[in-house]
Amino acid sequence: MSETILPDERTAQVPAATRTGRRQVRPVAEGWTQQLAADGRPALQFASPRRKQPETHLADLTPAERTAKVEELGLPAFRAKQLSTHYFTHCTTDASAMTDLPASGREELVSALLPPLLTEVRRLRTDDGRTIKFLWRLFDGALVESVLMRYPGRITLCISSQAGCGMNCPFCATGQAGLTRNLSAAEIVDQVVAANRAIAQGELGHRPSGAPERVHNIVFMGMGEPLANYKRLMTAVRTLLAPQPDGLGMSARGITVSSVGLVPAIRKLADEDIPLTFALSLHAPDDGLRDELIPVNSRWKVDEALDAARYYFEKTGRRVSIEYALIKDMNDHAWRADLLAQKLNERGRGWVHVNPIPLNPTPGSIWTASERDVTAEFVHRLESAGIPTTLRDTRGKEIDGACGQLAAAE
Ligand code: SAH
Predict the structure, then answer these.
(1) How far is the CA of 106 from the centre of ligand 1 (A)?
(2) What separation in angstroms does the CA of 334 have from each of 20, 23, 380?
(3) Which of 134, 161, 282, 407 would be 224's cystine partner, CB 3.0–4.6 Å?
(4) Rounded to an integer, what is the distance from CA 19 to the centroid of its chain?
(5) Which tens digits make up the pLDDT trace of 226-277?
(6) If we measure between CA atoms, which residue out of 240, 243, 330, 340 comes closest to residue 286?
(7) What percent helix, strand, coil does the chain show, rounded to 5?
(8) Is the CB of residue 156 less than 8 Å from the CB of residue 216?
(9) Is the beta carbon of 223 within 6 A of some atom in ligand 1?
(10) Nearest to 172 by CA among 28, 1, 361, 391
(11) Which of 26-40, 323-337, 353-367 shows the lowest mean pLDDT across its residues?
């Protein structure tokens, strides 16, 4: 890692007095080789390599398509609802448990509409059993992870939208192997159904009342860039939101889509008219640094990403989250907190909050989290400028289950 001061043109937007003081560490991939494009910049992979997709599953289809498929198999339409109830409500794909379906043809129906998608490779626990990381193998051998977390009063699942990721952020373990492929809508939904099954089996313990529990919140902060897999993401989201038995009956507010900042897709998401929570992984308020930290910044600059985030708020009324991983001497300077606050306030009040997260070191890297006092100062500067700020601590570090640590290796 080099410790140069950024060249002047990079910091030109920052008043000279605020640039002095601490050193500036530049983002350089450590312990692995970052793929470069022909122009010498970090490579970006927007399109998924053409690979075979898994067999079509109930959760890839709309309720009308499910009925059509069941009728194609020569069965009455209401069988689709029964099958959906088994899958979404009871989390079961076991034909022998579906005793309300006639025994003859049951196996065929299940294998036609509920092909197995995720095979469990490993399950790791930490935080006294309140955090569980699942490693899944997909039909073609690709690996993905999801992380289940119990918090007081809610259960959150962090899910993957792609196997690997094409966004090539130098601080994130997922990007290091590039993008393998997009997940299908059902591969996304099945992570939630599998988590609900694990909860029902008592994997996260039980409530004192013994009342059944399910995943309340979903964050698309696992592997992949959800907005680079837009169509399947939205199919999955619609199924997560659909009332039972057509889907999981979840609330849109409880689902957070997190993005590096694919501006046209953020605007498209805003126009869907679904009050999902949107999080922008900003990590730097100045293009000089963000160009290197978040390679997609070469396409869409900080101001464009913030304008799109503001548009998201205007269209949906949902307060946007700004993710900011605090990296020692790289993006944690007080002047950057001031610049961030300024850029957010320029776009109005009450539309955004900031979630700084101390960086989780990636394996083989010497990138480290900011010092405690630096973190406190960063938060203080934002708060004094009137920006609601919540310092996050990510769960699951000990099992490489925290943000940016998902690499899905066996
Ligand atoms: N591609 C999406 C979602 C996946 S990552 C996105 O970038 O938003 C989820 C969050 O974890 C993002 O804010 C990402 O920047 C952050 N992250 C990645 N690596 C991290 C690390 N090592 N420490 C802390 N946060 C990290």
Answers:
(1) 43
(2) 10, 12, 9
(3) 161
(4) 33
(5) 999 999 999 999 999 999 999 999 999 999 999 999 999 999 999 999 999 9
(6) 340
(7) 35, 15, 45
(8) yes
(9) no
(10) 361
(11) 353-367
